[in-house]
What we know:
This protein has helices at residues 18-28, 46-63, 77-89, 103-112, 230-235, 245-260, 263-283, 313-322, 347-362; strands spanning 7-8, 69-74, 95-100, 117-123, 146-150, 152-153, 158-159, 172-176, 193-197, 208-213, 289-290, 302-307, 325-326, 337-340. The radius of gyration is 21 Å and the shape is globular. It is of the alpha/beta class. The chain has two domains: 7-13 and 263-362, Aspartate Aminotransferase, domain 1; 21-260, Type I PLP-dependent aspartate aminotransferase-like (Major domain) (Aspartate Aminotransferase, domain 2), CATH 3.40.640. The structure holds pyridoxal-5'-phosphate. Residues 12, 77-79, 104, 150, 154, 176, 178-179, 197 line the site of pyridoxal-5'-phosphate.
Amino acid sequence: VLDRGIYNFAAGPATLPESVLLKAQSELYNYRGSGMSIMEISHRGKEFDAVIKKAESDLRSLLSISDDFAVLFLQGGATTQFSAVPLNLCMPEDSADYIVTGSWSVRASKEAQKFCKPNVIWSGKSEKYTRICSFDEIPQTLDAKYLHICGNETVQGVEFKDYPNPMNKSSILVADMSSNFCSKPVDISKFGVIYAGAQKNVGPSGVTIVIIRRALLGHAQPIAPVMLDYKAHADTDSLYNTPPCFTIYICSLVFEYLLHQGGLVAMEKKNEKKAGVLYDAIDASGEFYVSHVEKSVRSLMNVPFTLQRSELEKKFIEEAAKEGMVQLKGHLSVGGVRASIYNAMPLAGVEKLVAFMKDFQARHP
Ligand code: PLP
């Protein structure tokens, strides 16, 4: 049901499931008979304790996260993890490998320069970030402490479909999964650390989820601020300080919703269907609409495309908005159009966009 009359294609903060918003609205004023809003309750009280425990256990069910891993609800956005990762996994003289597939992995690798010796072992820059290397193409650093990837580049729309193995046995795989978190099943056991800002697939902005192998805890650099030391948060079940209670509450409603939808296998099927409908429409447009990303790594979440007649892009975005399809403007740095079609975007929204694209093309022969 489309109650608010629009389809929201924002890249993040992004659209949330209607049922989650309505449930949050109904509980906002008086949380489950407590006489208080969840925003007014101590993070150490029994109500919030139940919220954060359920959020964690539902997320563990969704992603089949074993007890070898800690699940942390942190602040500072995924951007803060660009420093927390090297600060927890490296000493300043250690090296770490970065595969750079777009704007976010550029940022991650640059931030790491402050805390260790990152090597960019592959970059898609010269090809404008339109593909991902084959894994045997990349010479990994023998003694790298970890190999960092960005699972899905939100700006360029390239997504890893499988994952590289770090070459030496003591190294670990680290992934920024901010924009494809919980969009499909993931074999967590392949990773040392996964981090994701919530504001695309699982909630509002304000919380960053970190899934970290417990064996990696307790090795932070001495200069690491306590707020960036994973162990401090793991030891206190994410209650080292006041957490973003309301955001975690909304995430818990989203996790519950995803489980009711059939979990991540079901979500992946829905996401593949939606992305398929949109990419097919682009490919069938005779280059009126152009996707620049190599087909094998096209993102299921963020679909950037351009109009061959670029002078029509502004009109396309404005007319789409008038018809109730909003926030379709491409990222500032690359321009064009970007349709973000996260978990909460219904197939009907993508079908409406595709119908509009065909009509717009017909009106501009
Ligand atoms: N990584 C990816 C893949 C992103 O898409 C974003 C934000 O859009 C970030 C990192 C930065 O996240 P934040 O704004 O939460 O710091």
